[in-house]
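ok so i was messing around last nite and threw this chain in just to see what happens. nothing serious, just curious
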Amino acid sequence: MRRFAFIQYDVFTSRPLEGNQLAVFTDARGLSDEEMQALAREMNLSETTFVLPGNAEQEREHGIRVRIFTVGEELPFAGHPTLGTGFYLHERDKKDVVELNLNVGKIPVTFTKESNGEVRGEMRQRDPEFGQIHSRDAVARAMGVSVGELDSELPIQTVSTGMPFAIVPVRSLETMQNLRIDWNRCAEYLATTDAKFFYFVSRETTDRSRDLHARMIFYNGEDPATGSAGGCCAAWAVAHGVVASDQRAIIEQGIEMKRASLLYFRATKSGDRAVNVRVGGSTVKVMAGEV
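result:
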């Protein structure tokens, strides 16, 4: 009988049983694509990752091979799986910088100890690609809200650092907290665009020390912390003057679903774009097991 060990983490939080859940299979050699997908369905989390160790030379050149699956498909990149798997590799290898070889290429994750003793990881994402500017009327119809509920001072724009999100600025925290999204209607609209998902953000937050309140609703329900969208949002926020170049800012997410998460982000302004996108946070190990 084959046996495969896994560890489950809560990502983008320093408190157990909050943040975004992630299962990491620590040595997935011998599993087929179909078995990885079936195990991701079995874990029934937003994402599950599979570490595929290689030889030392391969890992030095390309990074440590990692594959990311949702319950329904393999993803080229996702933020909280990258950060959470990075934490596992940081603890395993005792290195302050680990490099993951994902389907989008090599992604480095750097670890530092904060003044309060908390270890925080920060991933450098691919330079963003800025895409379509969306019609507020069309997006409001897809969301099922009046167009007046959207922030008229900021554009709805697709940004990708490996996964394309339409960043949707919402006018008030109250609207964010009361969103009742019909995913099928959103998916119909998104299928006509260059974005895969919406990422809803508001400049009103539940805590004044934070910069943006966010929600990400998709086919698997709601995501408590979306690191890939956090990178896209960082680029959008810096490009459009929501936060200053290289300012460390904070996204709060998962509040409505009682999985509070904090995503730390920064990016560098370059002309009318943003580059050097970094997203980070803490991770907590909550359980371990074997399949």
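not much to say yet. The radius of gyration is 18 Å.
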